[in-house]
TrEMBL record:
The chain crosses the membrane at residues 9-30, 42-60, 80-104, 124-148. It comes from Gracilibacillus dipsosauri. Keywords: Membrane, Transmembrane, Transmembrane helix. This is DUF2798 domain-containing protein. It holds the Pfam family DUF2798. The keyword Transmembrane helix applies. InterPro entries: DUF2798. The keyword tRNA processing does not apply. It comes from the Bacteria.
Length: 161
């Protein structure tokens, strides 16, 4: 959807902010950590998560997902199919890495509580996929695309200077 580098940055910022805000809140709620943290700790965790998510989106997961999507055998002229494929690969990649971030935050905050590392990470990963997939495909993705197209493409806002 973005047509140049600046649009890609704005689109990525919007998408990452929305997803990190919802997913961080979700993870703090299901882990039971939200009542044990101060507002300052929550803000630090969300900001740190946002920075990591942006890095992953722009430099690792995003380019990899695009490369794989372009290699898949389907008509790339189908915008819907391209967006669904790209979004699904982005979700799986981001959940894989951001679940590691969540695991580490939880581990350093409260330990493993008797669980193995694989079990703890697997639980976090599955819980995150369960929310991230529908959140991205049905809510955040369409909302960000709508806002982006309305405010950055339809009004002729010049982003490519």
């Amino acid at each position: 959807m973005p047509t140049n580098k600046k649009e890609s940055i704005i689109f990525g910022l919007m998408m990452c902010f929305g997803m990190v805000a919802v997913m961080s809140t979700y993870n703090l709620l299901i882990s039971g950590n939200i009542q044990h943290l101060t507002l300052q700790n929550i803000v630090i965790e969300v900001v740190l998560g946002f920075i990591i998510a942006l890095f992953l989106d722009f430099f690792i997961v995003g380019p990899f997902a695009k490369k794989i999507t372009l290699k898949l055998p389907f008509a790339h002229s189908s915008k819907l199919l391209f967006v669904l494929c790209m979004s699904t690969l982005m979700i799986l990649g981001m959940v894989f890495f951001m679940s590691m971030f969540g695991f580490l935050m939880s581990y350093f905050g409260q330990g493993l509580e008797g669980r193995s590392m694989i079990s703890a990470y697997g639980t976090i990963f599955i819980r995150n996929v369960v929310l991230a997939l529908p959140l991205q495909l049905l809510v955040m993705g369409p909302a960000v695309r709508f806002i982006f197209s309305k405010y950055f493409q339809k009004r002729g806002v010049e982003l490519s200077s």
